From TrEMBL:
Keyword Nucleotide-binding: no
Organism: Cephus cinctus (Wheat stem sawfly)
The keyword Electron transport is annotated on this UniProt entry: no
Family: Belongs to the THEM6 family.
PANTHER family recorded: PROTEIN THEM6 (PTHR12475:SF11), PTHR12475
Keywords recorded for this protein, A-Z: Membrane, Transmembrane, Transmembrane helix
Transmembrane segments: 6-27
InterPro entries: HotDog_dom_sf, THEM6_lcsJ_thioesterase
Protein name: Protein THEM6
Length: 222
């Protein structure tokens, strides 16, 4: 009888946990961080990283034949954690400031991902200013190399300068391999030109912000 009550309690706790939290999301985030920290090599801040995923039955939309649009942005959480850890970007931000948040994101869907299809997400920094770091993510199917979707995300750093963070990481570099005498990737510290699509996107964000700041869009408490 006691064993039955214990089993019922354990099952109840599991059901409650899955009801209150998206358990598999946190488990996958843990394993992504673990692999990035202990199993993958460190990379330079301007290098490109990649993670793999699969469109499971819990990712599909109501029509049941392709991945839900919202899941693409969710998948970017894992890609960013992998990038942050392997480049030491997050640790450097924490050492100079308080953290980093997602400021904005835009995504363009080119061709849907079918259920149970494998995809790769590549991540790289394409631009930065004093307050933000801009990253480009591509969803690619390895079978044909086709870019299924492309996203641009603006990461806002808190209480520090993005330029200062990038400068430290670029100056530090990473060891390429033990056989290289210098042992450090040498990349000139030059901020890249802002990509045209990012420039237009920022203009759109500024227009949106200006519209929301207009008096008629400001709500007053009752």
């Amino acid at each position: 009888m006691l064993a039955c009550w214990v089993l019922a309690g354990v099952l109840g706790a599991i059901v409650l946990l899955h009801t209150l939290l998206e358990v598999h999301y946190f488990l996958r985030m843990f394993f992504t961080l673990f692999l990035a920290r202990f199993c993958k090599k460190r990379v330079h801040i301007l290098d490109e990283t990649s993670v793999y995923g699969i469109c499971t039955t819990t990712d599909v939309d109501t029509l049941l034949y392709h991945m839900n649009n919202a899941r693409y942005l969710r998948e970017l959480d894992f890609a960013r954690v992998d990038f942050y850890e392997r480049t030491s970007l997050y640790r450097e931000i924490r050492s100079q400031g308080t953290g980093v948040v997602q400021g904005a994101a835009t995504i363009r869907y080119r061709r849907f991902l079918k259920p149970l299809s494998i995809f790769k997400i590549t991540s790289k920094i394409i631009y930065w200013d004093d307050k933000s770091i801009f990253m480009e993510h591509r969803f690619i199917t390895p079978s044909d190399g086709f870019v299924r979707a492309i996203a641009i995300c603006r990461q806002r750093v808190l209480d520090c300068s993005a330029e200062a963070v990038i400068s430290v990481l670029m100056d530090r570099g990473v060891k390429q391999n033990q056989n290289v005498e210098a042992g450090v990737t040498q990349i000139p510290h030059v901020r890249p030109q802002i990509p045209p699509e990012v420039a237009r996107w920022l203009e759109s964000n500024e227009i949106s912000s200006a519209t929301l700041r207009q008096p008629e869009n400001v709500t007053t408490p009752c």
